[in-house]
Amino acid sequence: MIRTILGFPLLLLFAGSAQAAWEVNLPQGVTEISREVYDLHMIIFWICVAIGVVVFGAMLWSVIYHRKSRGAKAHNFHENVVVEIIWTIIPFFILIAMAVPATATLIKMYDNSESELDIQITGYQWKWRYQYLGEDVDFFSSLSTPREQINNSEEKGEHYLLEVDNPLVIPAGKKVRFLLTANDVIHSWWVPELAVKKDAIPGFINEAWVIVDQPGTYRGQCAELCGKDHGFMPVVVEVKPQAEYDAWLAEVKQADKAASEAALKTWNLADLMETGEQVYAKACLACHQTNGEGIPGAFPALKNSPIALGEPGPHIDIVLNGKTGTAMQAYRDQLSAVELAAVITYERNAWGNKVGDIVTPAQIAKLKE
Amino acid sequence: MNSTVAATHHHGPASGIGRWLFTTNHKDIGTLYLWFSFIMFLTGGCMALLIRAELFQPGLQLIQPDFFNQMTTMHGLIMVFGAVMPAFVGLANWMIPMMVGAPDMALPRMNNWSFWILPFAFSMMLLTLFMEGGAPNFGWTFYAPLSTTYAPPSVTYFIFAVHMMGISSIMGAINIIATILNLRAPGMTLMKMPLFVWTWLITAFLLIAVMPVLAGVVTMMLMDIHFGTSFFNAAGGGDPVLFQHIFWFFGHPEVYIMILPAFGIVSEIIPTFARKRLFGYASMVYATASIAILSFVVWAHHMFTVGLPLAGELFFMFATMLIAVPTGVKVFNWVATMFRGSMTFETPMLFALAFVVLFTIGGFSGLMLAIAPVDFQYHDTYFVVAHFHYVLVPGAVFAIMAGAYYWLPKWCGNYYNETMGKVHFWCSFIGVNITFFPMHFIGLAGMPRRIPDYALQFADFNAVATVGAFIFGFSQLIFLYNVISCIRKGKQASAEVWEGSHGLEWTIPSPAPYHSFSEPPQVK
Ligand code: HEM
Ligand SMILES: [Cu+2]
Ligand SMILES: [Cu+2]
Fold this sequence. Notes:
The complex is a heterodimer of chains A (369) and B (524). In chain A, helix 10 (337-349) crosses helix 11 (361-368). Chain A has helices spanning 2-14, 32-65, 81-109, 147-150, 242-262, 269-283, 285-288, 306-309, 312-321, 337-349, 361-368; strands at residues 117-124, 127-132, 137-141, 168-171, 175-182, 187-191, 196-200, 206-211, 216-222, 234-240. Mean pLDDT of chain A is 88; it is low at 1-19. In chain A, a hairpin with a 2-residue loop joins strand 1 (117-124) and strand 2 (127-132). Chain A is of the alpha+beta class and 369 residues long. The radius of gyration of chain A is 28 Å and the shape is elongated. Chain A folds into three domains: 32-68 and 80-109, no CATH class; 117-252, Immunoglobulin-like (Sandwich); 263-368, Cytochrome c-like domain (Cytochrome Bc1 Complex, Chain D, domain 2). Mean pLDDT of chain B is 94; it is low at 1-9. The longest helix of chain B is centred in the first third of the chain and has 36 residues, at 65-100. At the A-B interface, helix 1, helix 2, helix 3, strand 7 and strand 9 of A face helix 4, helix 10, helix 11, helix 12 and helix 13 of B. The complex binds protoporphyrin IX containing FE and copper (II) ion (2 copies). One copper (II) ion (CU) is lined by residues 187, 222, 224-226, 230, 233 of chain A. The site of one copper (II) ion (CU) has 7 residues of chain A, from loops.
């Protein structure tokens, strides 16, 4: 029994030299707060170990020496008010010793004032949306690990399940405030190395903040069960020095402009189908499935569905505006006009659906105005 | 008609299936509860093994994410409401009348009813697995709006099943309170009651206080889903966080409902095998009562990350830390009972000793989780899974097994096979630690709970945990075999059964007669 208990601290001691796969402890993290949290964790852990050694030691002593097979005779004391009061009061003081530094850290974590950059983070079933307030930068971030790796038909990459298409980028050394909310169910935005975990709740806005001095890439995951693909909505934060961050901002804005210009060009069916298939795989496949047959009882089939086979109007409407109160989200802001037109065209002409018509990016762009 | 009733009353059980369907006898009903609980334990256990098998390696191998979520949800619900709670009620049914010197439970017909509701409730819940859209998949905590707006159609059946379980628990609790308060033998004052009876009395009050809250919250869900209200729907002006407050106002006392009777069992067993009176009886009673009272003011420690105001965060952190004090008193008292005793290590004692150590480890991680700023890192990770399994599996479940081995000779008149009992203990003990200890590590390293697939750095410990789970799971078959063969035959047990046993239940013959005490015994 006692070995398991002693094993834990020993393992922790060797943790430094252990390989990543045998990681056993909290990361120290890269912010002042995360290091304080780590220290608190270790202090309390060692206090528990100390109490454990005393209590389990006394127990082990009795088990070894006060056993009948050794001829031990039972004494008959069965209460002692002084001892009982002592062991009620001592833990009380130990607890106060723990509570003081914990309170101090918590107060710091709650200081959301004077931020230099505000980013709104919105949880969607199963991706994150990042809106840089006052910057006109707004994008979605979803898992980029290929399905083949998840289904074991391909070798898994180094950052399996912890990689996204568009990471959140923030400047180093600045106080960045996150405003968290959700579009559908509750999610929780968590990056262990930043020691930030905050629930994203529909209808509410929660706050959290970080100052990261060290540029780098930090990975985390959604921490609140949010449905089928809860295990597949990672968080990736890239911290860049100010100059690189500025360059990145300019680049994103440029790309947005290019995307809206692309909508004005003329597209043929084949091109739309090709783009549509990619968009479908990225944005729709999780629910409506590769074969377009959905999951009965949860997500409807698009193959042979009256909406996909009928007039384009209602089809465009449900994809752009979603359907409130269901898992079908509004894709108006999530996808560009080209992507929307492509995926709708794709759904009307894939898996044996043969409507043959084209929904053009220009048409969508007009609706998006 | 009258004469047959009189006849069964005097000459023991009726025969055939009717005995079990219509029985009002506390021992028969206790037996039904215990078998039901064991079947549920194996059912929920199979689901756990399926979950662990999927998590053996990274990647999706056996089951798809949606079914994985159904499995974690059903596993949690079945273990909590189907395995642990009914097992305690079964033990209460068997032992409380014998311990307080009563002929039977105070309300025998209601007793029959409170058991027979359960198989229907759980059949309904399990059958949702075959519905279109599948079984509930939103976790045993069923947070709205995932469990309302976004739930599969089976959620309605889940709600009714929860209502039925709640009714069953409340009736069981009323019965236990009525028995303890009214049917004690002359001379048995409250402060002379065995601790198992005390802990159950307090547990029963907790049940009556919080099961209606659970019923309330599922009814609000029902209204949101079918009758257009918006209690938990932000778009309609409701509040998803309100759900969590109500749920955990039930949920935290609920975790004490699952552990207080375990404290009682262990407090019976340790003195017997240490051949020494329980140390600090009075402080044990006060500690139990303080834990129960404190359990009503700590619920939001499950909600540190929902964005509570700072003052709320601090209040719930301090209140939670405070629970460590009475819990510590209990552990110290158990150790002091062993100290300078004359110990032997039969199977019930082994389980009780493992309980003390492993439950305390669960208590340590509980204390760590109470520290709000650090809980931000632990919350909803495998660290929490490790914590609550340490208090529930080698906590509640080990105590139930200890109790089963301890009282089995009294129930059926034969000793179980001691060697086989020890093998069962060691396999369970090793299995449980291999399964759940590594979960502390993967949780700290950053693996969230309720995920069907994980990043590569968590792979090794997950494989270890799966191996442990299979060892633990299959060793329960040893227990099953041992119990069945003990019921059939075995060394004849005396009335005292154990050398150091103490209390009224050991004054009646083994096996205990169909009606325990027709004449009230005198307690000095
Ligand atoms: C064979 C022994 C057991 C094994 C291997 C096992 C394993 C697991 C696993 C792997 C999970 C899922 C964790 C996740 O994905 O978040 C889980 C969840 C859970 N288990 Fe167990 N478990 C066992 C016994 C028990 C027992 C006896 C109880 C209760 C008394 C219990 C109560 C729970 C609860 C409440 C959950 C949470 C379900 C949820 O996330 O909604 N387990 N268990
Ligand atoms: Cu999630
Ligand atoms: Cu709690």
